[in-house]
Amino acid sequence: MRTEVLAEAQSWIGTPYHHQMSVKGAGCDCLGLVRGVWRALYGPEPEALPPYAPDWSERTPVDTLSEAAGRWLVPLDASQAQPGDVLLFRYATNGFARHCAILSAPDRILHAWRGQSVCETTLGSFWRRRISGAYAFPQH
Q: Residue 97 sits in which domain range?
């Protein structure tokens, strides 16, 4: 499964950043990449996504991204994550998850963020310190 996830995620490289979109080649945000991989492997998304602002996690007392990941993906210990798994990140030490990426190698991630198309970057100390969760896509 992880090989399929990784291959699909890599096919999104170069897709421009566009908040709330999830269309390969046209635009996506970090969550849009994960949603697009889901659709390619499983079909329709399992739940409707409400509109969200770029700073959505700063305005709610609920860790919405982590809760949704826990409903549809398989939780892992972050130290056990492998290429093809989803990582969630928080920017504030005690904050909620605000960003997601797909692990592409032990030290690399695929993701999109404001001003940057889907790309592969180093999972360096900046990102490692901010990992708040790891999840695998479920088996078919």
A: 2-136
